[in-house]
């Protein structure tokens, strides 16, 4: 009899299993995919670690989480500095002085702020005293027309599959504007990627723990988990666990077209966002730039790139992003109430909580849940 059956080997499941094993608990980790690691899994192609399920950059200001992962693997110096391509014009992200210089030719923070405030004032005046009713109106009031139309509007419409005028305003509560010449996307104190790829991190987390891949919780004998374990850690979709009692939650998902390019340096950056409808994909990822720097880039004669497409979720796809509209938020609340009433079951991670999570908060959550539950058996 296991102490814990853990469904899913992504960061929540793997971290919880690691902590449980350290506490002397017997665990079994199962995953329906043919590999461990969930969405951080990397596939080696031409000597390059390819982020199979999209770009994953680890970043945090939580020193406890940073110290924890660094006891397991070494992290490299990667800093996320994405570039936006709008109809062949290139802009730095996040919105900073380099962006505003490329947009308007401004050179000082005062000039940039004056331009932004002028355009924001036009948007606010157009509302005639009412609150923004949709994402388009909200964004215009936050950053003005130029930034919205070039860097937000069409990119967001590709992401969500509907016009910005039909998306709720609360999706964009704030848009950070940085009046400095700094292209670092994150404000966190610590940032990087495991040297050698995320598979090394997962391997270290699950070292010595029994794991079974290609094992679907719902179609395997483990669905009757009480026969095998005292406790269940579930990281799959929360609505599926309850057999869609209140209806199915909506998701957005992404798909990738990955190819090998016969050049050592294809686009000069790990991530380039395509912010117009001219290109059907939202961004292009060049994977080698996550882990290869300087001469290393040219020592590897080819490059692997992935075009990323945002689509509506359909049965059989991987669910990625919760759809945070009123219907789904209400439905998720009902499912969370059911989850809270379950005995000996821990629900964790983005699918089981129906929340968008960065990697570090997932690990932090797993560490906290493990600390509060492991010694109460």
What is the CATH H-level superfamily of the domain at 2-39 and 62-72 and 193-251 and 317-376? Answer: NAD(P)-binding Rossmann-like Domain
What share of the residues lie within helices?
25-40%
What is the CATH T-level topology of the domain at 2-39 and 62-72 and 193-251 and 317-376? Rossmann fold
Number of helix segments? 12
Average pLDDT number: 96
Order of helices and strands: EHEEEEHEEHHHHEHEEHEEEHEEHEHH
Task: Name some characteristics of this structure.
single chain, about 375 residues, alpha/beta, Rossmann fold, seven-stranded mixed β-sheet, five-stranded parallel β-sheet, 16 strands
Topology summary:
Blueprint (H helix, E strand, L loop, with lengths): L1 E6 L3 H12 L4 E4 L11 E4 L2 E4 L6 E3 L2 H8 L12 E4 L2 E4 L4 H8 L4 H18 L8 H9 L1 H16 L29 E3 L5 H8 L4 E3 L16 E6 L3 H4 L9 E11 L9 E4 L8 E4 L8 H5 L3 E10 L8 E2 L3 H16 L3 E3 L2 H4 L5 H15 L4
Parallel strand pairs: 1-2, 1-10, 2-9, 6-12, 10-16
Antiparallel strand pairs: 3-4, 5-8, 6-7, 11-14, 11-15, 12-13, 13-14
What can you see in these coordinates?
The chain is of the alpha/beta class and 377 residues long. Among the domains are: 2-39 and 62-72 and 193-251 and 317-376, NAD(P)-binding Rossmann-like Domain (Rossmann fold); 97-171, no CATH class. Helix content is 33%, strand content 20%. It has helices spanning 11-22, 63-70, 97-104, 109-126, 135-143, 145-160, 198-205, 238-241, 295-299, 326-341, 350-353, 359-373; strands spanning 2-7, 27-30, 42-45, 48-51, 58-60, 83-86, 89-92, 190-192, 210-212, 229-234, 251-261, 271-274, 283-286, 303-312, 321-322, 345-347. A seven-stranded mixed β-sheet has the order 7-6-12-13-14-11-15. The longest helix is centred in the first third of the chain and has 18 residues, at 109-126. It is globular, with a radius of gyration of 22 Å. It starts with a strand and ends with a helix. The mean pLDDT is 96.
């Amino acid at each position: 009899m296991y102490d814990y059956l853990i469904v899913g080997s992504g960061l929540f499941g793997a971290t919880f299993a690691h902590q449980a094993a350290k506490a002397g608990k017997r665990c079994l980790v199962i995953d329906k995919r043919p590999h461990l690691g969930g969405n951080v899994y990397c596939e080696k192609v031409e000597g390059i670690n390819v982020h199979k399920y999209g770009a994953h950059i680890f970043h945090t200001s939580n020193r406890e989480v940073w110290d924890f992962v660094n006891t397991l693997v070494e992290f490299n110096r990667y800093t996320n500095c994405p570039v936006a391509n709008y109809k062949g014009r290139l802009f730095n992200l996040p919105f900073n002085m380099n962006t505003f210089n490329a947009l308007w030719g401004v050179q000082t923070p005062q000039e940039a702020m004056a331009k932004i405030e002028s355009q924001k004032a036009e948007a606010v005046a157009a509302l005639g005293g009412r609150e923004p009713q949709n994402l388009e109106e909200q964004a215009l009031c936050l950053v003005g027309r130029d930034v919205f139309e070039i860097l937000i509007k069409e990119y967001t419409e590709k992401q969500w599959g509907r016009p910005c005028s039909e998306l709720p305003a609360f999706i964009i509560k704030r848009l950070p504007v940085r009046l400095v010449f700094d292209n670092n996307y994150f404000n966190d104190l610590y940032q990087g990627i495991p040297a050698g790829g995320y598979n090394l991190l997962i391997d270290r987390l699950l070292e010595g723990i029994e794991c079974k891949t290609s094992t679907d919780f719902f179609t395997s004998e483990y669905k009757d988990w009480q026969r095998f374990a005292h406790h269940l850690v579930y990281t799959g979709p929360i609505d599926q666990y309850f057999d869609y009692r209140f209806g199915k939650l909506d998701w957005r998902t992404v798909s990738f077209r990955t190819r090998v390019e016969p050049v050592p340096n294809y686009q000069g950056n790990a991530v380039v966002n395509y912010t117009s409808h001219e290109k059907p994909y939202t961004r292009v990822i060049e994977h080698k730039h996550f882990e290869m720097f300087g001469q290393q880039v040219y020592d590897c004669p080819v490059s692997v790139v992935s075009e990323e497409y945002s689509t509506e979720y359909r049965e059989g796809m991987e669910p990625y992003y919760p759809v945070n509209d009123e219907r789904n938020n209400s439905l998720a609340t009902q499912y969370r109430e059911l989850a809270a009433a379950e005995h000996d079951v821990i629900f964790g991670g983005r699918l089981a909580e129906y929340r968008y999570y960065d990697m570090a908060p997932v690990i932090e959550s797993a560490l906290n849940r493990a600390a509060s539950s492991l010694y109460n058996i």
